[in-house]
Amino acid sequence: MKKFLLLTAATLSAALCHADYRALVFQNGKPVSQTKVQNISKIALANKNYVQTSEDGNKSFAIGSIDSLVFVKDTVHIKYDGGNVVVNNPLASAGLNIIEGEGIVQVLPDTSVFDLKDVVFVLSGNGTGGFRMKQSKRVNLVLDNLQLAGVMGSPIAMTGDKGVSIKLVGSNILSVKNAIDSIPNAALVVNDKLTIEGLGDLTLSGDYKNGIEVKDDLVINEASILVSAKKTGVRVKDNLVLNSGSLAVSANGDGVDVNDTIFVNGGKLVSTASGSDVKAVSSDAAYIQTGGDVSVVVNGNGSKGIKVGSVTDDNNQVVRAGNMFVSGGTLTAEIVGAGKYTDPNDSENSSSPAALKADGNVDITGGTVNVSANVASSAARGIAADGTIYIHGTSKVKVDIQSYKGKAWCFKSDNAVEVKEGCLTTDFNWDNSKSDDNEAGIFSSSKKTIAE
């Protein structure tokens, strides 16, 4: 028994040098306890029991009931090579089942015995196929110079209800070779929260449909991400949080489409969207920028650079109009080649292009904001709001709008426009304009204020 304890202590000491190991206790041939080694603070014998103290909770087993105690690396390596895949799975004996066919790897853990939490999957190589998992616990992916073209769907599809963390190493490319609508078909699909981090880069080509689809929050730290898509570039069900790194999107539909709130705290966001009635960046709840560098360009009738919509209930009634807040960083929004859009199925429904548009208020208190419509348009709006437009604080705002044979506005508000004069520079081209307000191209149904 002493020998067992000494071997365990020695093995534990060696394993503690590596963060990617787990301690497995086997009874009757099955793992009954799995603990990340870095979470273990103590292993000891007490009253003929094996006692393990860790931040995940204390565990105790009668020595006579234990088949073995082993330390296993909890990192799975998967390397693609053309249509072939090499899988190195050290956790197979613990109940982590992985099958492969025609280049598609499926992770199928035996959830009755295996704890999937925090297992690391390292994907590398250059090939065709895919990686599929319905994760029941949070897992970590490392993309290590991976080039993977998805066959019959997404190259990576995480369809479970727990979060995923992706770390980027080197240069990585995910693309969709061919797909069908009935299975995940974006270049990257995660059905829960996704965090992308690391000093590497990731290029995603949504040649079939969308680039990224995330059904919870998407958080970006340090990583450099480039997305191109036939339809929507990045679709997020909940919040998008950009803390650092970069996200560049080019789409033939909406660029970045977020159901809840967009937070830009740092980093760089670039989005270009082409098509009628598209948005380079859109959210339904709020757009909040406290730092970073954001640049959006739209090309198409009725298109919007950044659009903040409204939160609705199950009956499609507006619960809360979305607001836009800018307190820091740099924001540039440009309209290219856009006129008014009319819904072909509803001739009464039309919309004008706008660099910035909110169903609620636009509140700019800091940072630098530059908006423009650099082609003559009879309908362009620089900054538009169904609520009130506020420009004050330490902000520096420049609006450059051209108008041709019709109304176009630097500012268009259904409520009020309140501007601190020192914050604002406007350039409104009046050639052939029929507008009835020549004060900086401002239209407000209520009032306007331009004062210190």
Explain the layout of strands and helices:
Blueprint: H1 2-15, E1 21-27, E2 30-36, E3 40-46, E4 49-54, E5 59-62, E6 68-73, E7 75-82, E8 84-88, E9 96-101, E10 104-109, E11 120-133, E12 139-150, E13 156-158, E14 164-169, E15 171-176, E16 188-190, E17 194-197, E18 201-206, E19 212-214, E20 218-221, E21 224-229, E22 234-236, E23 240-242, E24 246-251, E25 256-258, E26 261-264, E27 268-274, E28 279-283, E29 286-289, E30 293-299, E31 304-308, E32 310-312, E33 318-321, E34 323-326, E35 330-336, E36 341-342, E37 350-351, E38 354-358, E39 362-364, E40 368-377, E41 381-385, E42 388-391, E43 396-403, E44 409-413, E45 416-420, E46 424-429, E47 442-444, E48 447-451
Parallel strand pairs: 7-11, 10-11, 11-12, 11-13, 12-14, 12-15, 13-16, 14-17, 15-18, 16-19, 17-20, 18-21, 19-22, 20-23, 21-24, 22-25, 23-26, 24-27, 25-28, 26-29, 27-30, 28-31, 29-34, 30-35, 31-38, 34-39, 35-40, 38-41, 39-42, 40-43, 41-44, 42-45, 43-46, 44-47, 45-48
Antiparallel strand pairs: 1-2, 1-6, 3-4, 4-5, 7-8, 9-10, 32-33, 36-37
What does it look like?
The structure is a single chain. A hairpin with a 7-residue loop joins strand 36 (341-342) and strand 37. The longest helix has 14 residues, at 2-15. The termini are far apart. It is elongated and about 85 Å long. The protein has one helix and 48 strands. It is 3% helix and 57% strand. Mean pLDDT is 86; it is low at 1-9 and 430-438. 47% of the residues are buried. The strands form five sheets. It has a 38-stranded mixed sheet that branches. With 452 residues, it is mainly beta.
